[in-house]
Amino acid sequence: MADNVILVGFMGAGKSSVGRILAARLGRCFVETDEMITATEGKPIPEIFAEKGEAHFRGLEDQAVRLLALKRGDVIATGGGLPCREGRLDALRAIGTVVWLSGDFGALYERALRGGDRPMLSGRTREQAEALYETRKPFYSKADLTVDTTGLNPDQVAAEVLKALRGRARPPRLWPPRLWPPHPTLSHTGGEGTSS
Ligand code: S3P
Predict the structure, then answer these.
(1) How much is the pTM?
(2) Which has the closest alpha carbon to 157: 61, 56, 3, 16?
(3) How far apart are CA 56 and CA 119, in angstroms?
């Protein structure tokens, strides 16, 4: 297992800010799939969408996912639509622990609108953006862990993610030991109230 921590979630979930904080706290490198794409294309995401369209951008995401297989121990923030294609979430889970930064749609939407030019939101009404979120949820929900970001700032979300990661890494509980064979009074067939 490549031991990466991979953040997924809708636009405005705070994947980049939380990812940076997490990477600093864990002493790991921080990688963003949108940055990888911007670097290969030599232009910002809105320009890629405007000049070559969404289908081209999704193809670039495919390449980015293939390159992620080379990463070891990094914190990786993915673009909001990246895990929402057949097989993508499984490809991410194969290289680390996938964490969904979920949240109330209204809060995500407001934050996404404030956070600059997002081609998937321009030309969409609020209702259409919410419908997009609904179609994406089934993909996000296949993540290993979910952290609800509602009402939390990036520092608090990062703390919740760390807590969830540590909880997951905890060794199996050894105490109390398994009750076997069951005590006669606990047994389903021979318990109280059964007549013979
Ligand atoms: C997209 C989200 C963006 C970026 C691109 C497409 C999407 O990333 O990858 O504009 O389809 O939701 P953020 O989630 O960081 O905004």
Answers:
(1) 0.87
(2) 16
(3) 13
